[in-house]
Design a protein that fits this description.
Helix content is 45%, strand content 16%. The chain is α/β, with parallel strands linked by helices.
Length: 941
């Protein structure tokens, strides 16, 4: 093994080997199956910290189950990401001064496939860097032929059952992309705006109502003013009419609980074609004559697909005032406000903070817009999906997420599945010139089914399906459905879905509904492990605008400061923040980010994976786990130096003698193996990582490797004893590597290849070795008790030496008072360890009545350990040294205390900075108390 641990020298080499050997494919000879479906990342995407965390969890589970002997499948694939992918290619065309319309639909789609072939593999390459053991030979894409057939099959079957229909509804409309978008593709952020208070005159001339709005241009589509039926101010006006300013229309005052008497004036303008809440009010009142007699039954759209004021249709007369036709919505707003003011119908304008919905891809302000779309009738599908969780067929981890699921599912609306873009699964519906709709798997099937001749004119629907539609079929479509394939039989239902909470509704719920519908009532997965968001070290969400995004690949490979700054400030939607972000980045990472390697990153993710909580990613933690990998590497080098070419007891006939330390570490290994297995099974990856860390660092490295030395370096130890210690060294290390492999695959594989033969193990890869199980026959309470006693003695002696400023290597006499028979026995049989590790000069048992010299004392159970101070320290010099240290500590306590008492600092400094100062004060107080206690001890000698 190389002297220094270098993750780059091993990680990509081992991944290439595993992939070339097809090690990630399901093992055919295995018993039982285990399957996880990867949440398909967007084909346009790049790895972010959420992917890194999510994939570490999935790979840990997969590697664990593979080693447990299961036929294991982690299904890879990517999502075609309709809007995002189309935008990428449209930007390329813009650079060539072209648009998709210049190419035409077919040529444009060909151009996207070309882009995918060249650039679409970026995310899968990055997943490989993470060590993800996905079955790459069976990678799927949501637009591949098989999945496209699955999508068509589901659409046709649902349509034939009356569960898909075409209707006019309100949708989130992106006026830049000219398509409906889902709620998940809308980002609402608080922005500064205004609230306009407008006067709507009563038609009987008795006054006016004041209504408030943040979008005055939408008044052109008002159909009513709503007041609360319990609002005494307006009860008498219900049923009366008001004049809708600027339009020459009259609209009614209706009673509806949507109007909140406490908010604004208590009067709400109702614009059902441009507001989701208003649409719901309209649905409750649309049968009332004063609404139904209005143009379009009161459902009046005023906008074009570009969010400009539309023209009047032939039969609408002057429904939309001519003065505003053709104006962009914001220009129309300005003109309408000016006209209201001129007519003395503007009460006031007030500054107002409001949530503005923007398209996550385009940045354009989203408009609620009335269009013809395709919908899934969701209620019949939702009912069995709710029952599947209620009856325990599907379990959420943590359990409380089922409540979020129920809340969404019990208030579910029909699902808008059409999108007005070109890239995606084109809706398998055709129209004739009479407006008839024909749905089928392809045009030939439609003609045959409906008896239409080859020359009968048909045109296919221009829209494509929502990306989430194909994603909803992912657990069974990827396995070959609608064909009844062997993979489908082996791996459906899958075992667990690992996902973030933000897509429980958009993806998880829809997979459950579709799985139950098309897989004969079988759920798509038995458990849903819901993890939190990866946040920065202060708990803030990582975002480009905050300049706190970390790229997992940068943590693996390292990145210099200038490149990091350029990366964080490139392509910002708010370029004015670039200078602030550069300053912040240069302060936080003055030397850039060092290379940590994949295993350190994965161990960090696992250690932070407490159930249900958001993850605060702290650079200090990844540095600590890089040190852990170093520790493991160096321990392995030490073991190999002491065992390579030596007799390690692999011959069953060899005589082997195990020391108490050997038996102790074997017993501790069983406890650790049991704890890690239980932790992974219960999704407590943080506990699994902690158990591995504690055993490796504290027990194996810090104690057992030290306890080996007196045996291996002794001329008096027998060959059988040395053989026993070497055997234990390699067997425990080999088992530890298997135990840690699911979390840190690369370093464990590299070391295992060297250690396995010495431990009597063979095989091509650690990943196909059995996972360690606790062996009850190796549990040894006697050895544990003996070594715990020994550790306590060694620690006590080292502590006294440290406190008394005695050199660690100086041999000291030890007296034992109040020693039990067990203490006497242990002190005798462990003398070689005490001489070697505690640098003991002599051990004397004090009997009752024996005189005790002036000593430093430690209590171990009922026994007292004494180290006589005579001749060991210069009392006066030591007191002076301690008094000097106490002075320094007192100054630090005073300085930090004053800082924290200063309200200017506490109120104005960032919370994290104040917290750090509090920690410093606490640490300084502890140091001061410790030094004072030491001084008292020395003075008492």
């Amino acid at each position: 093994m190389d002297k220094t641990y270098d993750p780059h020298a091993i990680e990509q080499r081992w991944y290439k080997t595993w992939e070339e050997n097809n090690s990630f494919a399901p093992q055919q000879q295995a018993e039982g199956s285990y399957c996880i479906m990867i949440p398909p990342p967007n084909v346009t995407g790049s790895l972010h910290m959420g992917h890194g965390f999510n994939n570490t969890i999935m790979d840990t589970l997969i590697r664990y189950q593979r080693m447990k002997g299961k036929k294991t499948l982690w299904q890879p694939g990517t999502d075609h990401a309709g809007i995002a992918t189309q935008m990428v290619v449209e930007r390329q065309l813009e650079a060539e001064q072209k648009s998709r319309h210049d190419l035409g639909r077919d040529a444009f789609i060909d151009r996207i496939w070309e882009w995918k072939a060249e650039s679409g593999g970026n995310i899968t390459g990055q997943l490989r860097r993470l060590g993800s053991s996905l079955d790459w030979k069976n990678e799927r894409f949501t637009m591949d032929d098989g999945l496209s057939n699955s999508v068509k099959e589901v659409f046709v079957r649902l349509y034939e059952e009356g569960l898909i229909y075409r209707g006019k509804r309100l949708v989130n409309w992106d006026p830049k992309l000219h398509t409906a978008v889902s709620d998940l593709e809308v980002l609402a952020e608080e922005e500064n705006g205004h609230m306009w208070h407008m006067r709507y005159p009563l038609t009987n001339g008795t006054g006016h109502l004041v209504v408030s709005t943040t979008r005055p241009e939408t008044m052109l589509g008002d159909c009513a003013v709503a007041v609360n039926p319990e609002d005494e101010r307006y009860k008498h006006l219900i049923g009366e009419l008001v004049e809708l300013p600027l339009t020459n229309r009259k609209i009614p005052i209706v009673a509806d609980e949507h109007a909140d008497p406490e908010f604004g004036t208590g009067c709400v303008k109702i614009t059902p074609a441009h507001d989701f809440n208003d649409y719901a009010v309209w649905q409750r009142h649309r049968d009332e004559n004063m609404i139904s007699d209005q143009p379009h039954g009161g459902l009046i759209n005023i906008l074009t697909i570009d969010a400009a004021i539309r023209d009047n249709e032939a039969d609408e007369d002057d429904l939309i005032p001519a003065a505003y036709i053709g104006l962009d919505r914001y220009a129309a707003r300005k003109q309408i406000v000016a006209d209201l003011e001129a007519a003395d119908l503007l009460e006031k304008i007030v500054d107002h903070k409001l949530m503005v919905p923007r398209g996550d891809r385009s940045g354009a302000v989203i408009e609620p817009f009335l269009t013809d779309q395709w919908y899934v009738k969701i209620e019949p599908l939702a009912k069995p999906a709710i029952e599947a969780v209620e009856n325990g067929q599907i379990r959420f981890v943590p359990d409380n997420w089922k409540n979020t699921y129920y809340e969404w599912m019990r208030n579910i609306q029909d699902w808008c599945i059409s999108r007005q873009i070109w890239w995606g699964h084109r809706i398998p519906a055709w129209y004739d010139d009479e407006g008839n709709i024909y749905v089928g798997r392809d045009e030939a099937e439609v003609r045959e089914k409906h008896g239409l001749s080859d020359d009968y004119p048909l045109r296919q629907d221009e829209d494509v399906l929502d990306t989430w539609f194909s994603s909803a079929l992912w657990p069974f479509s990827t396995l070959g459905w609608p064909e009844n394939t062997e993979r489908l039989k082996d791996f459906y239902p899958t075992n667990v879905l690992v996902t973030g909470f933000d897509i429980i509704f958009f993806w998880v719920a829809r997979m459950i509904m579709m799985g139950l519908k098309f897989m004969d009532g079988q759920v798509p997965f038995n458990e849903v492990y819901v993890h939190g968001l990866v946040r920065d070290s202060h708990g803030d969400k990582m975002s480009k605008s905050k300049g706190n995004v970390l790229d997992p690949i940068d943590l693996i490979d390292g990145i210099d400061l200038d490149t990091l700054v350029e990366k964080r400030t490139r392509g910002m939607m708010q370029p004015q923040l670039a200078a602030k972000i550069e300053k912040q980045t240069r302060k936080e990472f003055p030397d850039g980010i060092q290379s940590f390697g994949t295993d350190s990153l994965r161990f960090t993710f696992a250690a932070l994976a407490a159930t249900g909580r958001d993850i605060k990613f702290d650079m200090g933690r990844i540095e600590g786990y890089r040190n852990f990998c170093n520790k493991l590497w160096n321990a392995a080098r030490y073991v190999l130096m002491n065992t390579a070419g030596e007799d390690c007891g692999t011959d069953a006939n060899s005589e082997v003698e195990l020391s108490a330390a050997d038996r102790w570490i074997l017993a501790q290994l069983q406890t650790t193996a049991s704890a890690v297995g239980k932790s992974i099974e219960s999704y407590r990856f943080d506990h699994a990582a902690q158990s591995i860390y504690e055993f490796t660092w504290n027990e194996y490295c810090d104690w057992y490797l030290e306890l080996c030395k007196p045996v291996l370096n002794s001329d008096e130890a027998s060959d059988a004893a040395k053989r026993g210690t070497r055997q234990t060294l390699v067997r425990v290390l080999e088992a530890l590597l298997r135990l840690a492999h699911p979390i840190i695959p690369f370093i464990t594989e590299e070391i295992w290849q060297q250690v396995a033969p010495l431990a009597g193990k063979s095989g091509d890869s650690i990943m196909l070795q059995p996972y360690p199980l606790a062996d009850e026959s190796l549990e040894d309470q006697q050895a544990v008790a003996e070594v715990e006693w020994l550790k306590n003695i060694i620690l006590a002696i080292r502590k006294i030496k440290g406190e008394m400023n005695i050199a660690p290597g100086k041999r000291v006499p030890v007296l034992l008072a109040d020693a039990s028979e067990q203490d006497r026995k242990y002190s005798e049989i462990n003398r070689s360890y005490l001489d070697f590790l505690a640098r003991v000069e002599s051990i004397t048992i004090l009997e009752q009545g024996d005189e005790e010299p002036e000593s430093a004392v430690a209590l171990i159970g009922d026994m007292r350990l004494l180290i006589p101070m005579s001749g060991l320290i210069d009392k006066d010099a030591e007191c002076k040294r301690l008094e000097k240290e106490i002075g320094k500590a007192e100054s630090e306590v005073e300085r930090t205390g004053k800082k924290l008492q200063n309200p200017n600092f506490v109120d104005k400094a960032p919370e994290a900075v104040v917290a750090k100062e509090k920690e410093k004060l606490e640490e300084a107080q502890k140091t001061l108390a410790s030094l004072q206690a030491q001084l008292e001890k020395i003075q008492a000698l």
